[in-house]
Amino acid sequence: MLSNRERKIVERFEKSRKIQSAGSLRSQIGEEETFFTMMRRMARENKLAVFSAIVILLIILAAILAPVLTPYSYSDMDLMNRLSPPSSAHLFGTDEAGRDILTRLLYGARVSLLTGVVPTIMSMLLGALLGVVSGIYGGWLDDLIMRLADITLAFPSMLLAMVIMYMLGDGLINVFLTLALVNWASVARIVRAQTLQLKKTEFVEAARVIGVRRGKMIFRHILPNCLPTLIVLFTLNVPAAILTESSLSFLGLGLQPPSASWGLMVNSGRQYLYAAPWLSLAPGIAIMVSVLAFNFLGDGLRDVLDPYQKK
Amino acid sequence: MADNTLEIRNLNTSFFTQHGEVRAVNDVSLDVRRAQITGIVGESGCGKSMTARSVMGLVRYPGRIVSGRIRLDGKEITGLSKKEMCSLRGNELSMIFQEPMSSLNPVMKVGKQVEETLRIHQHVTKEEAARRTEEIFREVGISDARSRMACYPHQLSGGLRQRVMIAMAMICKPKLLIADEPTTALDVTVEAQILSLMKRLCEGGTSILLISHNLGVIAQVCDYVYVMYAGRIVEQADTCTLFDHPVHPYTRALLGAASSLRSGAARLETIPGGVPNLLHLPSGCSFSPRCEKCARQCQNEVPQMLPVSGEGHLARCYFANVPEE
Amino acid sequence: MVRNALQRLLQSVLVLLGAALLVFLMLRIIPGNPAAVLMGEHADATVIKRMTEELGLDQPVLVQFFRYIADALRGDFGTSFSLGKPVSELMASAFVNTLILALFASAYAWILGIISGVIAAVKKNSLPDRLFMGASLLGVSMPVFMAAMLLQFFLGYQLKWLPIAGTSDWTGFILPAIALGWNSAGSVARLVRSTLLEILEEDYIDTARAKGRGQMGVLMVHALRNAMLPVITMMAIQLSGMLSGAVITETVFSVNGIGRLAVQAISSRDIPLLQGTVLFSAAIVIIGNYVADSLYNVLDPRIRKEA
To answer: Are B121 and B246 in the same domain?
Structure first.
């Protein structure tokens, strides 16, 4: 309901509040917020986040409707039309084998979105589970999990991804696994920190006093309360995964041709950078746009849900 | 004229928010007499801090002074340039804040922070600044001054921090010291010490504007008191008169609540209703929705400050001069 | 405070050991005998067997691990399969290039990031603020390889100002440094801006103004020093990230640094080299985190006392 600036003012007004009177300025303007009203507030205050959400929806739609949207096939070669610049027949031009770049972009969106979303879900599940267990049970289990997280975070993520890819070998599933294994640690740390905070709150204390089992407590009380954090983390981790995948593919360590991932397209276009820059430029811009959109949306969500800053 | 260190006339300060204008300070006029302690009392959010900040020129965006005149020692200070205001602040006009912990820079030694005030306004050598700082530390009752100067704020107790704040404000011997809830964050014993220090400063010739929600604090040290409610001054009188013969229903209610607390009455007296929303002030007297004496006139028109029997006693109430039945 | 520092040091060493063990195990899971890879496809079985024994590959994995660690502590990381030179020697010469690149990149990134962050915070919502924050967003979300290729295309190929790739002289480091630093410039600028905005709301900023400090004085003496605490931590972590090998940047611009060495190790299935570079990188990251923590402790008197 209140903008941040206004809330600060209200807080300033109220800071020295010592005489208790029946109502306060804050409750008059209305401070209580549900998840739904928060989303509405974001929609009203942060147009950029809304715009980003629309862009993401459009990318998803385009990926699903790829066969309908384009007359070309993503793998059919047309050697008469190699490296042709953007034209009305080929909006973004064609690549070294005469394939339509727009078509490959649309199909590439499928791969890139999948490599953004699937490993992120995997790493979030793994991280959230380990983080909650670590926070609830404590003791040696906590130590073990947290040291594992420390070790995972000790590697530069690109290098760790390269080594895991090397260990697992090529293929889409292995890319998923790799990205999940690289990203779980930070999720686990954040969820653990939040679990520890929640553990101190009265309702969890109360649940423990009346003898709710710990397993039940995790699913009833802890995880639902971590949900806002997880939503924000999700929107911020998806673009990170897309970037890592495209970097891996760019180095030739991720997916292999003839798959059409955006990173792979940038990589294969690199040889023709000077003769036909659109080969790399188009997928590169596609990566940037989707990463930006996810980041904007994530920032907007964080501003309203604010899970980090809650003390 | 010269016996008023500070004169505020018809000051209006507002915040311009998305929801409209919040009138934090509404047509406030007040005087701070030379070498006296003048108090402003009222609930949180009634505009007392904003009045102080307006004087200091420290109102934050989106707030600003809309109109009014402020005179320091007979000299007009509204409309001064930023640079001129800077040379006044800390020098002739200083302020201490409520929260002595967060009001000190956490990564700077307190000695340095006090010296800083001096070195902004006067050309003194490092040694001279350090010497004067040590001196002022002693004056405000910080024992072991030299070693305390090398401390960081978090290493000092709340009372000591507030003494540091006072030292910082007093080192240039300002004409006016504004103290915004200087003892609210402190223990009662420390509060008494700080208050007696402020009394001593006042006896030394400094005029003080003391802001507090605490009637006890006001009663202990102030010579003259203004009561604020919802951005307006509703009653003003010298301290004895105000506490003995409060006229405005709000002042009475405040005193009633405080005295029922003190006497340990079976039921705490409270003021019914809540503080009005400053965005949508009632059209008449701001206190009318909570006032048991409220008449039609009160709801339609804002009353003026009316003189009450007794010198220098004014109240913003139509019933100010109606004797109690 | 000393005790705390030692405690953290011990913890860092343990994490490094764990990291080493992890890499070691991962590279042993891969099917195929490294000795066979080393000797080529047509080597006969007895030769491979002799090689296996020579490399100690017939021993239990843990024994191999501790032998490796013992050797590593003496500076011996084994010999590269593909290049035939000691891994430590290869890493040392690669690190020089990585170091130059990282220093170039971070110097410009920090100067640019801090200055634009401060301007953006002070002139909040002004045109420069929007411009800087837009540029920093591009910096944060542009993949490094995109930035690298755009730089190559425009500054290297079209304008011919700077060499496209290779580091035959120092000018070869400029483009990769810009590409590498772009990202951190963006994140530094954003962090400086947001921290500064937060700090400008603090009570002690009011105090500073009440003392008579002007805008500049408040900013320089009081706000910036407090705002730099998290920024310096971030910069230490960024620098260690760059020093641990900028895989993409080094590959695109053919800078023979640690990152490129790791890529080469992977493409030639050179396990000792890969193991060495990855471990080296992990060590740099861990040291970076340690330094960042320590810096924070030294710079913030509040933590200094608690520790």
So the answer is: no
- Cα A183 to its chain centre, rounded Å, is 11
Write down which chains contact chain A via at least 3 CB pairs under 8 A: B, C
Q: Is there a single domain that holds both residue B123 and residue B252?
A: no
* Whole-number Å distance between alpha carbons of C29 and C27: 6
The arithmetic mean of pLDDT across residues B285-310, rounded, is 84
CA proximity to C227, closest of C202, C265, C195, C271: C195
How large is the ipTM? 0.84
| Each residue's pLDDT tens digit, A160-171 | 999 998 888 888
| Residue C225 forms part of a structural domain | yes
Domain count of chain B? Answer: 2
Residue A9 has pLDDT above 90, yes or no: no
Q: Could you report the per-residue pLDDT of B156-204, keeping only the tens digit for each?
A: 988 899 999 999 998 988 999 999 988 888 888 888 888 998 898 899 8
Interchain proximity A14–B44, CB inside 8 Å = yes
Q: Do C262 and A150 touch (CB under 8 A)?
A: no
Residues B125, B84, single domain; the answer is no
Same domain, B87 and B119: no
Query: Which residues 74-133 of C are in CB contact (within 8 Å) with B?
Result: none
Distance CA B131, CA B145 (A): 10
Digit-coded pLDDT (tens) for B25-36:
989 999 999 999
Residue B325 in any domain: the answer is no
Nearest-Cα distance to chain C for A180, in Å, is: 16
Q: What are residue B295's DSSP bridge partners? A: none
What is the predicted pLDDT for the residue at C36?
65
Same domain, yes or no, for B14 and B155? Answer: no
Full residue range of the structural domain in which residue C256 is found: 87-306
Provide the 10 A C-beta neighbour count for residue B39: 28
Q: Which of A16, A166, A280, A281 should one mutate to test binding to chain C, selecting the residue with the greatest count of C CBs within 10 A?
A: A166
Which has the minimum average pLDDT: A111-120, A150-159, C12-21, C32-41? C32-41
Specify whether B71 is located in the same domain as B153.
Answer: no
Beta carbons of C212 and B87 less than 8 Å apart: yes
Best to test chain A binding among C17, C146, C153 (most A CBs inside 10 Å): C146
User: Which of A56, A151, A302 to mutate to probe the C interface, most C CBs <10 Å?
Assistant: A151
- A246's tokens: 């495209």
pLDDT (mean) for C191-213: 90
Of B157, B173, B189, which residue sits at a domain end?
A: B173
| pLDDT value of position C303 | 67
Least confident stretch, A78-82, C70-74, C140-144, C162-166: A78-82
Q: Check if C299 contacts B (Cβ < 8 Å).
A: yes
Give a yes or no: residue C80 inside a domain: no
Clarify whether residues B179 and B254 are in a common domain.
yes
Chain A neighbours among C 144-183 (CB < 8 Å)?
144-146, 149, 152-153, 157
Q: Are A226 and A128 in contact (CB under 8 A)?
A: yes
Nearest to A87 by CA among A106, A67, A102, A70: A102
Smallest CA–CA distance, residue B193 to chain A, in Å, is 21
CA B235 to chain A, closest CA, distance in angstroms equals 19
- Classify residue B240: in a domain, yes or no: yes
- The first and second tokens of residue B192, run together, are 């008494």
Residue A19 to residue B15, Cβ atoms within 8 A: no
Residue C127: exposed, middle, or buried by beta-carbon count in 10 A (0-12, 13-18, 19+)? Answer: exposed
Percentage of the residues of chain A whose pLDDT score is greater than 90: 16
Q: What is the mean pLDDT of chain C?
A: 85
- Could you identify the residue written with the tokens 């509405």? A40
Residue B250 domain boundaries: 4-92+175-315
Considering the domain architecture, whether residues B63 and B83 belong to the same structural domain is answered as: yes
Kindly report the pTM of this predicted structure. 0.80
Q: What average pLDDT does the segment C237-255 reach?
A: 87
Our count of domains for chain C comes to 1
Q: Do A246 and C152 touch (CB under 8 A)?
A: no
What whole-number distance in Å separates Cα of residue A200 and Cα of residue C74? Answer: 48
